[in-house]
Amino acid sequence: TQLLEQSPQFLSIQEGENLTVYCNSSSVFSSLQWYRQEPGEGPVLLVTVVTGGEVKKLKRLTFQFGDARKDSSLHITAAQTGDTGLYLCAGVVGNTPLVFGKGTRLSVIA
Amino acid sequence: NAGVMQNPRHLVRRRGQEARLRCSPMKGHSHVYWYRQLPEEGLKFMVYLQKENIIDESGMPKERFSAEFPKEGPSILRIQQVVRGDSAAYFCASTTIPDTQYFGPGTRLTVL
Predict the structure, then answer these.
(1) What gap in Å lies between CA B106 and CA A40, rounded to an integer?
(2) What is the SS3 assignment for A84?
């Protein structure tokens, strides 16, 4: 059973389009993180959200943590080819180790 | 990723050999995590160490795998008698705060 479900699994869009990817769970997280991973590299932390309902913005990326702290979304405005990569969400439940979803593989086409 | 070093970046081993993967955490970080990533999969937790202590090894296979983080030097993930199923990317992450981790570039292990 996957603790964190990410959707969609794959997404291919044209440059300039907007998109939203989702990270859902039945568990309540004390914090949730989003990472981007490029081929052959390790994940790079984008943001950490800790408060239910929290919204954080990072340039064209908007991250939202659900009110119940069970889900999160990442919205990208006016996608660019440089946004291409694997987007991973990861959550902390109590004292358990960080749990990762399988990721959304985004391809932005010029 | 800046600061977390892993080596080698690529490692090829034949079945039955030993693999040693090294991780040097960011300066000032005393916590190290090891993860395994299979193709098209997320990262799976293996082990959490602090200097000279294993804190949580619940994700580590009971046989053939071991990890250490000595007082001096890098953290080592050791896989004895490797099998083809051990082929994967292995990442370490270091932190001072348990839930804010900074990842290294990974070691890609291929078992022939």
Answers:
(1) 8
(2) coil
Residue A4 has pLDDT above 70, yes or no: yes
- Give dist(CA A56, CA A48) in Å, integer: 9
Report d(CA A36, CA A104) in Å as an integer.
Answer: 10
Among A48, A68, A36, A3, which residue's Cα sits nearest to residue B45?
A: A3
A48/B43 CB distance under 8 A: no
Q: Name the residue among B4, B42, B48 with its Cβ closest to that of A103.
A: B42
The token pair that represents A9 in the structure block: 């699994």
HSE-up (13 A, CA, CB side) for residue B67: 31
Q: Which of residues 42-61 of A touch B (CB under 8 A)?
A: 42-45, 48
Name the A residues in 6-25 with CB < 8 Å from any B CB.
none
- Residue B57 burial class via C-beta count within 10 angstroms: exposed 0-12, middle 13-18, buried 19 and up: middle
Query: Model confidence at A34, in pLDDT bands (50, 70, 90)?
Result: very high
A10: left (phi over 0), alpha (psi -120 to 50) or beta: beta
Task: For residue A10, give Cα distances in angstroms to A87, A102, B4.
Answer: 10, 11, 29
